[in-house]
Amino acid sequence: MANQSRFLIVAALVVGGILLLGNAFETPQVAASVPGPSPTAVKEKPDKDKPEEPAGGTDTAGGTDSGSETKPDITGLRVAVFNATSEDGLAGEVDAKLTSAPWNAEQAMQPGDSDESLDVSAVYYDEEENKAAAEFIAQRVLKVEDAVIEPIAKAPGVSVGGVPTDISKDVQVAVFVGADYLG
Questions:
Q1: d(Cα 106, Cα 79) in Å, to the nearest integer?
Q2: CB–CB of 159/98 below 8 Å?
Q3: In which element (H, E) is residue 92 found?
Q4: Cα angle at 60 between 48 and 46, to 5 degrees?
Q5: Phi and psi dihedrals of 117, rounded to 5?
Q6: Residue 158 near residue 91 (C-beta atoms within 8 A)
Q7: What three-state secondary structure class fits 168?
Q8: N or C terminus: fewer CB in 10 A for the chain?
């Protein structure tokens, strides 16, 4: 009788465990199709204070994003950020975003100022292999549309701490924050 009671208890625990685990890993329900504009048709202004997922983000169903778009990993990329507006502190703000999680780029120069004011942000790259990283920074970190993406040789002059200087040869990507960043 004691063995039969033990068996029933163990069987009940096994069945309860299976039911509990089965409910813990439910698949998300897909919303029914409703006539009218799709929620993705409305283009919202990106939140510049909220970092987006770096390379290999997740899709809306919680799985790994396996789209054809390549998302470069900018971890360790040597960047320099320059303010091309009259708004104080933008270079430092963007530099802090780039050099911290989730991006983790490497600061190659102290944030500084552009010798030119820019209405449209510009991101310059040192070698063709870093062009995708420059485009990615403009779109996902600065969250600006139509940023200028060009070789670093075309970048305007800069100053750091009020002293005119050249962009360091160590810089792989130079970010010039324009007025479009402010919205």
A1: 6
A2: no
A3: helix 90-98
A4: 15
A5: -80, 140
A6: no
A7: coil
A8: N
Cα separation of 157 and 82, whole Å? Answer: 10
The predicted model scores a pTM of 0.65
Q: How far apart are CA 18 and CA 90, in angstroms?
A: 54
The domains found in the chain, sorted by start residue, are 78-182 (3.30.70.2390)
Tens digits of residue pLDDT in 60-91 = 333 334 444 567 899 999 999 999 999 999 99
The β-bridge relationship of strands 112-114 and 158-160 is antiparallel
Q: Which residues, 6+ apart, have CB-to-CB distance to 13 below 8 Å?
A: none
CB 127 within 8 A of CB 172: yes
Where does the pLDDT of residue 12 fall: very low under 50, low under 70, confident under 90, or very high at 90 and above? low
The string of pLDDT tens digits covering residues 105-135 is 999 999 999 999 999 999 999 999 999 999 9
Rounded to the nearest integer, the mean pLDDT of the chain is 78
Is the CB of residue 91 less than 8 Å from the CB of residue 177?
yes
Q: Distance between CA atoms of 6 and 18, rounded to whole angstroms?
A: 18
The residue with tokens 């998302």 is: 71
